[in-house]
Amino acid sequence: MPILGSVKEDSPLFGILGRQVPLVHPLAIRPRDEAAPLCYLVAGHQLEPEQVEALAQHLHEIWQSELTLEEARAYITDPTGTPIKCEHFCGRSFTGKEAMLLL
Predict the structure, then answer these.
(1) CA–CA dist 75, 83 (Å, integer)
(2) Between the chain's N and C termini, which has fewer beta carbons within 10 Å?
(3) Cβ neighbours of residue 80 under 8 Å, at least 6 residues apart?
(4) CA-based nearest residue to 58, from 37, 74, 73
(5) Which residues lie across from 21 on neighbouring strands?
(6) Neighbours of 58 (CB within 10 A)
(7) Is a pLDDT exceeding 60 seen at residue 93?
(8) Is 57 helix (H, G, I), strand (E, B) or coil?
(9) What is the pLDDT of residues 26-46, one digit of tens each?
(10) pLDDT class for 103, splitting at 50, 70, 90?
(11) CA distance linking residue 46 with residue 39, whole number of Å
(12) Which residues of 32-56 are buried (b: 16+ CB within 10 A; e: fewer)?
């Protein structure tokens, strides 16, 4: 059941991830508390190594004091998914009966 998120062209992540990325689930989540922004869980373990490295560099630049580059790589490739704010996406697509039933 492939689920793909479409990255907005004007998002800074478009140059890193490209037009579409694999998602763990088609529905958005709040990764921490109810004040956190809605996010899609990106299936980072399915990304190309170059995408993982570029995204790790990006996250490391944002969270330098909290996240080493190695920790960023591990965070991205965790099979449970990496939360990325919905504001970076313009839609999602999926196939399979299981995915259709989730909606």
Answers:
(1) 10
(2) C
(3) 24, 41
(4) 73
(5) 5
(6) 17
(7) yes
(8) helix
(9) 889 998 788 889 999 999 999
(10) low
(11) 18
(12) eeeeeeebbbbbbeebeeebbbbbb
